[in-house]
Amino acid sequence: MIRVGIDIGGTGIKVGLVDENLQLIGEGTIPTRTDIPFEEQVKAIARCVTETAAAAGYRRKEDIASVGVGIPGIANADGEVIKCTNMGWFHMPFREVFRKYLDVPVFIDNDANVAALAESVAGVSAGTSSSVFITIGTGIGSGIIINGRIWNGFHGIGGELGHVILDLDGVPCTCGNRGCLERYCSATALIRMGREAVRDNPESLILRSAGGDPSGIEARTVIDAAREGDPVAVRVYGEYISYLAQAVASVVNLLDPEVVVIGGGVSKAGDFLMEPLRKEYPRYVIFNDQPMPEIKLAVLGSRAGVIGAAMLS
Ligand SMILES: [Zn+2]
Questions:
Q1: Which of 128, 199, 242, 269 has a CA that sits 20 to 30 A from residue 79's CA?
Q2: Where are the alpha helices (H) located in the chain, listed in sequence order?
Q3: Architecture of domain 127-297 in CATH?
Q4: What is the pLDDT of residues 28-61, one digit of tens each?
Q5: What's the pTM?
Q6: pLDDT tens digits, residue range 228-241?
Q7: Distance 195 CA to ligand 1 centre (A)
């Protein structure tokens, strides 16, 4: 018996087969197609599941306990995708259509929630009953696990740490508001801060590493220059860490989970990110004379999407 996880991404859709020991035992991929009708998209996904399972020796639908889907968007408990802008899905009956092609239990949730679930079952926060997962990439994704289950709010729209407002008159956000946390804590934010800093400090290693072209500055450029001790990069990175520490502290002040898990592209900085973050976040926590959550690095990486989706129930 296997469980199947599906990770709907911008360029590809990944299918993973997970066995009873939470091990990934088979994988398949199809390209993301937004130029075909919804029904065709779902049919192609169902076919990929059937083929991937068959290749691993699971040919009957009875072999598949469930199928879970992680989407960059929101869905409801009826298996309907409410909103998934990247795919062009708005109020689409995913479960109903999928089951025409493969009649097994189908569950859908937000991709960051799914990754949070994966880490809490098979990753760094395994064994805990409460955790918050923060993924730092182009934006900020987050997932909340309470009593071992995803908490995405009464109306299914919660867990959006990235759009907690840090600065009312702050940097405009893709959501239409200003000053959202993700404008200060994402990789995109670090890039912006790096580019702004080199305007007045063209001698900085940040700019030299980018070949003298500010548009070539990436999050890694700033992080590496800070690691080298470049004063401008050290200042920018320190400021970035402060914002991130405020984000973590807000999570702690609001939810006080057992563990806060940090994942996503920026987390590849490893200890260079985690050590200052662990040191700094308590100053923003109100009851910081009490025991506080551990801050841990995610361990499942890109596998979290399919593993977590397979865990949905
Ligand atoms: Zn926003």
A1: 128
A2: 38-55, 94-101, 111-122, 182-185, 187-200, 205-209, 219-227, 231-255, 271-280, 304-311
A3: 2-Layer Sandwich (3.30)
A4: 999 999 999 999 999 999 999 999 999 999 999 9
A5: 0.94
A6: 999 999 999 999 99
A7: 21
Ligand 1 centroid–CA 180 distance in Å is: 5
pLDDT higher than threshold 90 for residue 179: yes
* Chain segment 250-288, per-residue pLDDT in tens: 999 999 999 999 999 999 999 999 999 999 999 999 999
Measured in Å, residue 207 CA sits from the centre of ligand 1 at 28
Ligand 1 centre and the CA of 143: distance in Å? 16
* Ligand 1 center from residue 165 Cα (angstroms): 8
Gap from CA of 268 to ligand 1 centroid (Å): 24
CA 57 to centroid of ligand 1, rounded, Å: 45
Q: Which CATH class is domain 2-118+303-311?
A: alpha beta
How many Å apart are CA 223 and CA 125, to the nearest integer? 26
161 CA to centre of ligand 1 in angstroms: 9
Domain 2-118+303-311 and domain 127-297, same fold? Reply is yes
The rounded Å distance from CA 20 to ligand 1 centre is 39
CA 181–ligand 1 middle distance (angstroms): 7
Q: Could you tell me if 109 and 158 are in contact, meaning their C-beta atoms sit under 8 angstroms apart?
A: no
- Kindly list the domain boundaries of the chain, sorted by start residue: 2-118+303-311, 127-297
Residue 33 CA to residue 217 CA, distance in Å, equals 31
